[in-house]
């Protein structure tokens, strides 16, 4: 039987989970203007804006995904894609259990940059990190420069999760986070705990307290002094 799952988008009314809550650090990486922030905002808040402010440094948001027996809370670091911020990236992917590397299907150079991020994570990040490749802006398929088969073949070679997404239409946005939530190991390093109790498996915890109810809401923080960029 397929695993049931729900994602919270800031609304209420969800039935609390009887299982444990697992908290994971997830980082988004990729070239500037590929739509990383738009993907996160669609996932966390259900919103899309044609013109999204450029991220400065990184933005922090949280969101929960509810599976049958457990709830996964993502602590999401949305990093800036501009080259001048590249040196800051290790601060955000260090200790992360998951990463989404985003490219723009209408920009082949952004796909090459995504490959470079994969290599960097494979060398320097947590050796057990779950890496997902997201080909964003699938709604612009008529302007496609990266073929689906090319990206899928690369992802299979590297052992990555892969989906094409559209922050604009919400295509596969929840699905990619759900696929990551299912793949992350649900282990409790501290031994048995009571149902509903948070299990923090983030080795670089940001001291963010997870809510004890399933799909209980989301939080987000966006940096100031940002310049408009088409996403």
UniProtKB/TrEMBL annotation:
<dbReference type="GO" id="GO:0015031">
    <property type="term" value="P:protein transport"/>
</dbReference>
<dbReference type="GO" id="GO:0005769">
    <property type="term" value="C:early endosome"/>
</dbReference>
<comment type="similarity">
    <text>Belongs to the small GTPase superfamily. Rab family.</text>
</comment>
<keyword id="KW-0378">Hydrolase</keyword>
<dbReference type="InterPro" id="IPR005225">
    <property type="entry name" value="Small_GTP-bd"/>
</dbReference>
<dbReference type="GO" id="GO:0005525">
    <property type="term" value="F:GTP binding"/>
</dbReference>
<dbReference type="InterPro" id="IPR027417">
    <property type="entry name" value="P-loop_NTPase"/>
</dbReference>
<protein>
    <recommendedName>
        <fullName>small monomeric GTPase</fullName>
        <ecNumber>3.6.5.2</ecNumber>
    </recommendedName>
</protein>
<keyword id="KW-0967">Endosome</keyword>
<dbReference type="GO" id="GO:0003925">
    <property type="term" value="F:G protein activity"/>
</dbReference>
<keyword id="KW-0449">Lipoprotein</keyword>
<keyword id="KW-0547">Nucleotide-binding</keyword>
<keyword id="KW-0636">Prenylation</keyword>
<feature type="region of interest" description="Disordered">
    <location>
        <begin position="210"/>
        <end position="231"/>
    </location>
</feature>
<dbReference type="Pfam" id="PF00071">
    <property type="entry name" value="Ras"/>
</dbReference>
<dbReference type="InterPro" id="IPR001806">
    <property type="entry name" value="Small_GTPase"/>
</dbReference>
<keyword id="KW-0342">GTP-binding</keyword>
<keyword id="KW-0813">Transport</keyword>
<keyword id="KW-0653">Protein transport</keyword>
């Amino acid at each position: 039987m397929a695993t049931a799952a729900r994602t919270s988008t800031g609304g209420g009314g969800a039935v609390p989970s009887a299982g444990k809550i697992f908290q994971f650090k997830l980082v988004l990486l990729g070239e500037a203007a590929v739509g990383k922030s738009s993907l996160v905002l669609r996932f966390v808040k259900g919103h899309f804006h044609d013109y999204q402010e450029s991220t400065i440094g990184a933005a922090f948001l949280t969101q929960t995904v509810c599976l049958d027996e457990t709830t996964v809370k993502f602590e999401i670091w949305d990093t800036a894609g501009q080259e001048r911020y590249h040196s800051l990236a290790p601060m955000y992917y260090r200790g992360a259990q998951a990463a989404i590397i985003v490219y723009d299907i209408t920009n082949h150079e952004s796909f090459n940059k995504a490959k470079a991020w994969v290599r960097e994570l494979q060398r320097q990040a947590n050796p057990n990190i779950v890496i997902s490749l997201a080909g964003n802006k699938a709604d612009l398929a008529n302007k496609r420069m990266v073929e689906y088969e090319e990206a899928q073949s690369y992802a299979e070679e590297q052992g990555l999760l892969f989906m094409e997404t559209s922050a604009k239409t919400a295509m596969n946005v929840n699905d990619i986070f759900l696929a990551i939530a299912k793949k992350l190991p649900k282990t409790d390093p501290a031994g048995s705990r009571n149902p509903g109790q948070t299990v923090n498996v983030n080795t670089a915890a940001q001291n963010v307290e997870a809510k004890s109810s399933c799909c209980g809401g989301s939080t987000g923080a966006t940096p100031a002094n940002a310049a408009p960029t088409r996403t």
